[in-house]
Amino acid sequence: MWNTFKYTTLSIVRERSIVIWVMLFPLILATLFNAMFKGIDENAHDLDPIPVAIVNKSEGGADKAFNTMVDALSEGDEAILAPMDAKTDEEARALLRDNKAIGVVTLDVDGWPSLELSAVTGTTGVSMGQVERTVLADVMDDFCRTREALEDIMRNDPQAAENPEVVLSLVRRDDYTSELKITHSQTREYVRYFYALLGFAAVMAANVSLTAVGAIQPNVSVLGARRAIGGTGRSRMLAGAIAASWLVSFLALVVAFAYIRFALGVEFGGREAACVLGIAVAALMATALGALVGALPYVPYTAKSGILTGITCLLSLFAGLYGTPALRLADQVAREAPWATVVNPVKQVSNLFYSLYVYTDLTPFFRTIGVLTIITAVLALAAALMMRRQSYASL
Amino acid sequence: MQVFKAALKAFFRHPIYLLIYVVFLSCMGVFMGMSVNDAPSGEYLTRPRVAVVDRDGEELSQGLRAFVLGQGEAVEVEDTERALQDAVMQELASYIVIIPEGFSADFAHAAATGAKMPEVQVIVSTQSAEVTMMDSLVDEYLGVARTYTLALAAASQAQVAERTSAAMAHTASVSVVQATETAPLSNAFLVYLQFEGYTILLSIAACSAVVISRFGREEMRRRVAASPVPQLRVNLQIAAACLLIMLVCWAFVCGLGIVAFGGRILGVATSHIAAALAALLCYSLFSLAFGFLVGQMTSNELVMNAVPNIVGLVISFLGGVWVSLDLVGEPIVTIAKFTPVYYYNEAIRGALDPACGGLTPGVLANMGVVCLFALVVFCVGLAISGIRVGRMGVWNGSSTKRLSHPAA
To answer: Is the per-residue pLDDT at B172 higher than 60?
Structure first.
């Protein structure tokens, strides 16, 4: 068995496709994620002044308060608005149509604003265009609410309106919120892509055992046929191949994890030891999955990798690997059909890391370990049943 | 036509590729598209899923609770640490306000005396622009409440809360203007086409690589080279078979999209949809060229699966298909311009633009750049093919011919 283990390990690490899938792929994609998502975090608060056309139809100086607000918001380095005066509705609409403005504010005769926004099209997930439109609408709402409150006080409590503290209170902007951290680490969305990537990499590591198991099956590969007539028993060869596959998968995933954690600085809640334990279980699951796909009868060996790739790509969609819309879809599925996440190994591996990041105690982590162990047991059992007593080349 | 038929036969011996890559993966795009709302005007403004844990229970807290829950999709969350962590972990609520016990009384006292105002606690699933905007709304509500508390010194807290909520209900009228009379672009269909950029690269590249690698094996090349059919004719027939496979993949993706999103693109100008599908055809050509390149580089099917998948993922992320490029830094945008996905994405967005879509010069230019990418990748593949043939000693066609027909 030792020899089987030793030579299976050597043959796996010499296999080019394994090196690409299991070792290079997570490193390449993690580097890309790091470049893209760290950029998003850095640019999150860089909002350029929002171009807005203003059509003023107010009369009798009713626009005074609005103009004061616009002037305040369009001056200085941290200006929010870039106002453009338009004489007519048509002129404003032309600015909107030519993408020179994203919104048109029309002041009615009493100086109350209404807002027309150009449509946001062709966006996947949240875009800066949506953020800008929301900010613009919020600014208009803020103005309307503040003015309404002031006029209400002036109408119903005129003495109070003479109190300068009341007026000052209306224009003052204080912070009334403080972030409460109930999670183990400060939550950042981009870390979830790295966790989904590790889930994807873990399942793709099934290619290792697919190759190793294929190499001992006489009806699958020439090498397997040659080995079948050797003196080593089939179960011993299988045990050696499975052990070697697990070791290679585990080491490859640990390398990917170490790169993401230490080279890219992605947080795992400071629980690196638990992460390694999680990786060990994930590698075991991948090994069982690869053995099952490798044991599928009536499917050519060369097509099995295609099956594995297809399954992994689909499962990764529901783990949120493919960007913002996929993450939203994964969350939606998790909310509305929780059973779908329980049977999705990519999502479960991703949850392993996310639960370490979010929860203060380790119970959810060990629960996920339990789920992965059950998945592994089911896959291994199915693989054993398929490999057992297969008949081939019979008369 | 024998080679053409043999190439197709080689491909159909692997129906699993057709099933998994073309049918199965294309369905991923349908899932993605279906998950996107073709939003009416209000939903252009993004709001998080919100929850409020009111430990105070007084009138002001109730007013704040009602206001916050009215701003986004309201969800209920239990007031336990585990439930709150679950809400964050499972994205049940991405913005949770906790109003501490005694908040209203502390608020009234601080507003009247000028002491430091109390704060509500906020739990967020992830820091984002939407969260910052929700913070501003909470600040706004409590700012107006403070003003009313000052102004109505003798009034009860219930009156303060009532008048604050009434003032906060006053908002500007907001509408979204469509630039043209035609139906607006279906975001679902666009997301489908964007996602299919990834799946079609995988399916065409993997399927064509299977065929090309079959004929690229050394033994097969030698056998074909020894046959009386000129190498050029052999290559052309293989190319025709791959082209047919590409067209089948493209037609399937187009048909699936039209069937799945037919209801959502009703009213969208036919020329706009046709232009977008033409852009997908250009991208399919790139995928075919990429498959040709991979087929020249290896005959290992594991590698043929791995390389298009990795390259597809990388260029799809870089090209702005899955993450909006206006959120990432300028260096990434510059790198994105070196990927065909960027131009494909620009082409379909331009083609489906309700105001000025269709086959506009801009769309044609982007499609042209995608075709140029295809040409470059194809040329690299040809160069590799040439090197491989040269290594087998059949590079010089004329000398082979002389050796084959010494009598002539």
So the answer is: yes
Average pLDDT, chain B: 83
Residue-number span of the structural domain to which B257 is assigned: 2-38+182-404
Measure CA of the first residue to CA of the last residue in chain A; give whole Å: 31
The verdict on a CB contact (< 8 Å) between A177 and B121 is yes
Does B175 reside within a domain? no
ipTM of the complex: 0.76
The answer on B207 and B355 residing in a single domain is: yes
Residue A21 · residue A207 · CB < 8 Å:
yes
> Residue B161: which of B99, B113, B115 has the closest Cα?
B99
Residue of B nearest to A120 (CA): B44
Domain co-membership, B238 together with B162: no
Is residue B160 located within the same domain as residue B198?
no
Q: A190-202, pLDDT tens digit by residue?
A: 788 888 889 888 8
Task: Compute the average pLDDT of residues A185-213.
Answer: 84
Burial class (CB in 10 A: 0-12, 13-18, 19+), A41: middle
Cα gap B115→A383, rounded to integer Å = 70
With 0-12 / 13-18 / 19 or more C-beta atoms within 10 angstroms meaning exposed / middle / buried, residue B226 is: exposed
- Within 8 A of B187 by CB-CB distance, chain A residues are 121-123
The string of DSSP codes covering B288-354 is HHHHHHHHHH---HHHHHHHHHHHHHHHHHHTTSSS-GGGS-HHHHHHHTTSHHHHHHHHHHHHT-T
What's the predicted TM-score (pTM) here? Answer: 0.78
Residue B176, chain A, CB below 8 Å: the answer is: yes
What residues of A are in contact with residue B349 (Cβ under 8 Å)? 121-122
A238-249 per-residue burial string, b: 16 or more CB within 10 A, e: under 16: bebbbbbbbbbb
Fold classification of A51-171 (topology level):
abc type-2 transporter like fold (3.40.1710)
Residues of A in contact with B171 (CB under 8 A): 140-141, 144-145
For residue B404, the model assigns a pLDDT of: 45
Of B47, B119, B306, the CB nearest to A176: B119
- The answer to whether A306 contacts B305, with C-beta atoms less than 8 Å apart, is yes
As a whole number of Å, the end-to-end CA separation of chain B is 27
* Residue B364 within any structural domain of the chain: yes
